[in-house]
Automatic annotation (TrEMBL):
Name this polypeptide is given: Uncharacterized protein
Residue spans of biased composition, Basic and acidic residues class: 53-66
Superkingdom assignment: Bacteria
Comp. bias (Low complexity): 133-145, 307-327
Region (Disordered) location: 1-24, 53-89, 133-176, 304-327, 403-444
Leader sequence segment: none
């Protein structure tokens, strides 16, 4: 193979005119070997160099080293991916992945609708009436009263009360609950009683109100033994007659809040709003005035909606009292009859307002037990209870069991509608010889 680049021509022997050997003084020692540099290129290098003189190499552009910078990827515009095809080019059908999530959403929606069937019914009725459905609005919180209010509580958006939300649409949603709602005024010396004695009398009255109106066993139709033990002997005998033999002259509901558990069952706590005050009565002792409204949330019992026996009371619908007592009979009201609506979770509310006056005689002038209660006067006003049914229980009416007026036990309400939450006016005193009024309530 020819050499492209020959090294320097070798000196030929005898070229020197003197005929001396040019390598005579050449010493091939270790230093010469280390210092020698190889100038001759490899055979392939010389071959490629000779070829590239006439045909320079062309860069194919497909190779890069690890030291070359990574080229930036071009941005893709949003576009639909090509439809998948099979081996013969026929488009394949995409699997319908949207079906499973859709079925899950539909199942959840059906379950939520089943759990809130009453809210769904209200929404449907509102849509039928062409009115926008109002969002549930909570009633404002109300502190215990210290003076008579100037007006009735504001109206709230109409809502259907249920077992889960028994106070929906009621002003009582913001009222205090339980015994703590009965706040005692500051005790001061009055007449023959010092401040400590007045404080004990106020506590005795509160204990009676709690035992008569807030005890769950009494509300469920039980016998109010604790409340009876706080009454003076004559007052206790009259109350026992109303419990054992209720009639037109003696009815336990004038003192005790009781419901027949076969018809109505309490739901949650009792909302209470009212006030208490003390007044001196000269030589006769001390008067304690109370005015409280008790609101009961109730669900239907196993026999709810059954016809009730009608029994009109006489002029005095209260337990017998001493002749000198000015006790008044209650004024009963019932809700207006509504069309039948199914739904066992629906609840009703009964509003009981009691305006009572308790007397504590001066033990130095009267033979009395200072640790027992005597009534000077008591009045009650009931919202949502059957009229003219005297059996020692309140009988609330549930909308899902509303009966037409023609059925026995359902007296036809009459007169203007009354707001049972309006505490701006006193409980009216009954007229002597007149029957208790039976009207309608504007809300419950």
């Amino acid at each position: 193979m020819p050499i492209v680049e020959d090294p320097d021509p070798r000196p030929s022997e005898g070229s020197d005119p003197d005929g001396s050997d040019p390598f005579e003084n050449l010493v091939l020692d270790e230093e010469f070997v280390k210092g020698a540099a190889v100038k001759e290129q490899a055979g392939r290098t010389r071959m490629l160099a000779a070829r590239w003189k006439d045909q320079p190499p062309v860069d194919p552009g497909a190779r890069r080293t690890v030291l070359d910078p990574t080229p930036a990827r071009p941005r893709r515009r949003l576009r639909r991916a090509p439809a998948p095809v099979d081996a013969w080019g026929t488009p394949r059908r995409r699997p319908r992945e949207w079906r499973a999530p859709l079925f899950v959403l539909l199942t959840v929606a059906v379950l939520l609708a089943a759990l809130n069937i009453d809210g769904l019914r209200d929404w449907y009725r509102g849509a039928q009436d062409g009115l926008p459905t109002a969002a549930p609005s909570a009633a404002p919180s109300v502190a215990p009263e210290t003076a008579p209010p100037g007006s009735a509580p504001p109206s709230l958006a109409a809502q259907t009360p249920t077992v889960d939300h028994p106070w929906a649409g009621s002003p009582a949603e913001g009222w205090p609950a339980g015994p703590d709602a009965i706040v005692l005024p500051a005790a001061q010396a009055v007449g023959a009683f010092d401040a400590d004695q007045v404080a004990a009398q106020l506590k005795l009255v509160k204990d009676f109100l709690v035992a008569a109106n807030l005890d769950p066993a009494v509300i469920a139709g039980g016998r109010p033994e604790t409340a009876l033990d706080l009454l003076d002997r004559e007052q206790r005998d009259a109350a026992v007659r109303g419990l054992d033999h209720p009639d037109g002259t003696a009815d336990a509901t004038t003192l005790f809040s009781r419901f027949d558990p076969r018809e109505a069952i309490q739901v949650g706590d009792v909302r209470v709003l009212g006030r208490m005050s003390v007044e001196g009565d000269g030589e006769r002792g001390v008067l304690i005035h109370t005015d409280f409204s008790f609101v009961y949330a109730l669900r239907p019992g196993p026999e709810a909606g059954r016809p009730l026996p009608s029994s009109k009371p006489s002029a005095s619908a209260r337990p017998a009292a001493p002749e000198n007592s000015n006790a008044a009979k209650p004024v009963a009201w019932t809700v207006a009859l509504a069309e039948e609506a199914p739904g066992s979770t629906r609840t009703a509310r009964t509003v009981v307002r009691r305006a009572d006056t308790y007397r504590f005689y001066d033990p130095a002038r009267y033979r009395t037990n200072p640790k027992k209660i005597n009534f000077e006067e008591f009045r009650s006003d009931v919202g949502n209870s059957a009229c003219f049914v005297v059996d020692g229980f309140y009988h609330p009416q549930f909308e899902q069991f509303a009966a037409p007026p023609a059925l026995p036990g359902r007296e036809t309400p009459h007169g203007p509608a009354v707001d049972p939450y309006d505490r701006s006016t006193p409980v009216p005193a009954p007229e002597p010889g007149a029957d208790p009024a039976c009207g309608t309530v504007s809300r419950s």
